[in-house]
Each structure stands twice: as C-alpha cells, then as structure tokens.
C-alpha cells in the first residue's frame, strides 16, 4: 500500500469529531485548484449590504460550507483567512457538504 493510500485509510479509520470540517476543507482545496483564479473559495456568509443599511437584516443567516465568489470584480465585505462575507452578486456557487444522504 502506498503512502497516499495508507494516509487515506488512516484518516477514514480514525474517530474524528470534526469529520465535516475536514470534508469541507478538502472540497474547498479541490475547488481552489480547479476554478479560475478570479474565484476565491472560502466558508462564510452572503448578505445584502443595502438591506442591512435599511435596518432589514435577515437574522437567519447560516454559515455556508463552500462559497465560491468573484474576487476580481467584487471585494468581500469581510475576509479573514478561510472565511468571507460577500454580496449576492459576487457569488458563483454555494455548496453545503453532507457526510451522508439521509
């Protein structure tokens, strides 16, 4: 068994409290390698900034596992490491990662 296969076997066999976080990070890394460079892939939130200014904030925000957004034409409202808050018009794709389909 090669090193890569052995590593995968060990990762799958180990009890992880944060399996979901690992899967999300793995998918984000895959997308970063395959999407055009204009896109940034992070976790985060999408918000309508104008709506916030009108005091009509949607308080039911949910953090998005994989958020691909256009960094070339739109500046994120907030960016910290692997986390972003962006406007809807910058979003190219939203992906929610699930460990099982039940």
What is shown here, in short?
Helix content is 31%, strand content 26%. It has helices at 3-13, 19-34, 49-53, and strands at residues 39-46, 64-70, 78-80, 83-86, 91-95.
Spell out the key features of this protein:
102 residues, alpha+beta, 3 helices, 31% helix, DUF6602 domain-containing protein, DUF6602
Described by strand count, sense and barrel closure, the largest sheet is: 5 strands, mixed
Number of helices: 3
Percent helix, as a range, is 25-40%
Percentage beta strand: 25-35%
Which parts are unreliable, with pLDDT below 50 for 5 consecutive residues or more? none
Q: By helix and strand content, what is the structural category?
A: alpha+beta
Please give the radius of gyration in angstroms.
16 Å
Which overall shape is indicated by the principal axes computed on the Cα atoms? globular
What's the count of strands?
A: 5
What do the pLDDT scores average to?
Answer: 79
- Gap from first CA to last CA: 32 Å
């Amino acid at each position: 068994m090669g090193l890569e296969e052995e590593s995968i076997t060990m990762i799958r066999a180990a009890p992880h409290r944060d399996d979901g976080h690992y899967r999300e990070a793995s998918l984000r890394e895959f997308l970063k390698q395959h999407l055009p460079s204009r896109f940034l892939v992070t976790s985060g939130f999408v918000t309508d900034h104008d709506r916030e200014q009108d005091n009509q904030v949607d308080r039911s925000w949910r953090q998005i596992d994989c958020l691909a957004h256009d960094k070339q034409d739109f500046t994120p409202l907030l960016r910290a490491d692997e986390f972003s808050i962006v406007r809807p018009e910058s979003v190219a794709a939203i992906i929610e990662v699930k460990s099982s389909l039940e």
